[in-house]
Amino acid sequence: MAVDRIEQDAVILDGNHPLAGNKLHFEVQVVGVRDATDQELEQAYSGGAHACGSCSCDDTGCGGSCS
Known about the structure:
Blueprint: E1 2-6, E2 11-14, H1 38-46
Antiparallel strand pairs: 1-2
């Protein structure tokens, strides 16, 4: 998070990641594959932690921050 500007009675923050809006290219190598655990499957099918993939969810859920 970065300070965007300072006004008389407020500080305006920019919460965007510095790379937001840029095209990113990744070169990856898959080094292993495994079956999902029962817990991972349960979370994926129930909408549990990390199911949305668009926020920083943790074991307590997303707190409504997922879109």
